Structure formats: structure tokens, C-alpha cells
Amino acid sequence: MRGRDQADMDPLARKALLRLLKSADRHEAGVAARRPALTDSALTAYKALRSLREKEEFEAVMVHAQVEGAIKIQRPRHDPQGFIERIELADLGKLALLLGEVPHGMLVAQARRELSQFAEVYPVLHDVSACWEKLKNVRGSGPDDAAQWLMACEAIVYARSQVALGIVETPVRDASSRLFKDSKRIEHLVSRIDVLLSGNVEDQARPDAEVLLELGLYRQDHGMPKRTTAAPSQNWRTARHVASHDRGTGTTGALPLQIG
Questions:
Q1: Given this model, what pLDDT does residue 77 score?
Q2: Do 149 and 33 belong to one domain?
Q3: Which residues lie across from 86 on neighbouring strands?
Q4: Which residues of the chain have pLDDT under 70?
Q5: Residues paired with 73 in a beta bridge
Q6: Is residue 89 assigned to a domain?
Q7: Which residues lie closer than 8 Å to 209 by C-beta, 6 or more apart?
Q8: 234 and 120: one domain?
Q9: Which end of the chain is less crowded, N or C, counting CB atoms within 10 A of the terminal residue's CB?
Q10: Are residue 94 and residue 145 in the same domain, yes or no?
């Protein structure tokens, strides 16, 4: 099998080995106590094969995987050519390599390295990666979504820089186009942005408009949202007027709203 494309692997054998890999990931993450192995229940489809050719193709994959040091197969003692009874994991890395996959633990480690540049500013990223280690997704994302979390960090930095310049209301798609050359990218990142702003992976998700408003962003099709304050008539448009007036008098930076 060496040198052949992985797509040529017997489909049933590949499915079984992927199941073993998933079991190994769970064991490595500490969420499964049993050592990774495929037993009778996981080999039912294989044992139901009626074609000798199909049986041999399945077993050829398993023998090859054993030769590569990825697994260990067990057959009946009294029948060395009989159906395989048990398949145990021998080496997680070698099994993943054989299947063209990446072990979950390696994915998490890579994601943590990628996010480290923002981890000091957003410590909640440590909690995000800790959830991933335990095979828990955060707002529907796993370690292979690390790039989206990086973009969420960049979106916050950009939006806050605009507010600091006194631009306290910006259509979200305009901001997204300028930052990512994609008018809808920030809207797709709102769930990640929400976690970064709240600093808690367990908090309930807020409405998108509320998250965007915290960054001075709004959806044009929804109209300008109002701030939730003790004075309901005060909104972002008033804030922009105040900021513009102060810039005209030489005051720099974004000023807080005056309530009352």
C-alpha cells in the first residue's frame, strides 16, 4: 500500500481505522478511560462480509497498518486465518499518518501557537484552547478554526482603533471590506468576537447587533441601533456629534457619552 493514494484504501477498513483514531483522540484528551481498540461491535460490518475478496482487502489494510507499527491485530488462536477479533492502537502518530489525518492533540497545539500572539490581550483564548483539548467546541468551532479567532481579534483591534479616532459608528460591512476585503467576514465572526469581548467561554451568546454595537459597528439593513442607557434618547449618532464637536475644539481621542 505504500506509495498508493489513500483514496485507494479499502473504504470499510478506512472507516474502522478512523474510528480507532477518534477513540485514540478521546483517550489522549482524558475523556475516555479505555485504551483505544476495535472489538466485536466495531468489527460487525467486516465480519458480515460474504465475499472472500472483500475480506482480504480489508485485512490487507490492517496487516499493512500493523507492519507500519500503527496497530496490533488479534486473530483466533485456533484459526490464524480466521476473522480478526480485535484491533489495538500501537502508535497514534503512525495511525494518523497512515490515514492522512492529524491527531487532535497536534491540532490543538498548533492552534495554541497561532493564537499566542493575542493570548495576553485576550486571556480567554487560553480557555478556548483548554476546551478544545477536552474535545469541546466553543461556539461551534474547534482547533481547525483558529484562523477565524485570529481574524476576530483583528476585527476588534481595528474597530476600537476607529472609535479611538472618534469614528463611533461604522457600517459593519464597510469595516469588513476595508479590513478583510470581504464585506461579510466580520458578521461571520460575531460569535467569536462575543467570547473575546466577554472574556468567558461559558457566557450565553448575545444578539449580533449588541456585540457589534460594543465596537461601534452596525448593520445598515437594521438601521442605527440605540444604546441601552438611563437616557434612551441618547444614541451613537449623538455620540458622533459630540466627538465631532470636540475634535473641532482640539480635543483628541474618543470621549464617553454624557448621560443626563
A1: 87
A2: no
A3: 74
A4: 1-7, 222-260
A5: 87
A6: yes
A7: 218, 219, 222, 225
A8: yes
A9: C
A10: no
Nearest to 169 by CA among 233, 219, 216, 234: 216
Task: Write out the DSSP string of 138-195.
Answer: BTTB-GGGHHHHHHHHHHHHHHHHHHHTT---EEHHHHHHHHHS-TTHHHHTHHHHHH
- Domain end point (choices 57, 75, 99): 99
Provide the 3-class DSSP secondary structure of residue 89. Answer: strand
Q: How many domains does the chain have?
A: 2
- What is the model's pLDDT at position 221? 75
Tell me which of 99, 115, 136 is where a domain ends: 99
Greatest CA separation for the chain: 94
Q: Return the pLDDT at 8.
A: 83
Q: Which amino acid is present at 130?
A: A
Residue 109's nearest CA partner among 135, 141, 137, 132 is: 132
Please give the angle made by the CA atoms of 69, 74 and 78, to the nearest 5 degrees: 145
Residue 253 in domain:
no
Bridging pattern class, strands 71-74 and 170-171: unpaired
Do the Cβ atoms of 159 and 216 come closer than 8 Å? yes
Which residue range is the domain that position 94 belongs to?
A: 6-99
Question: Do 213 and 141 belong together in one domain?
Answer: yes
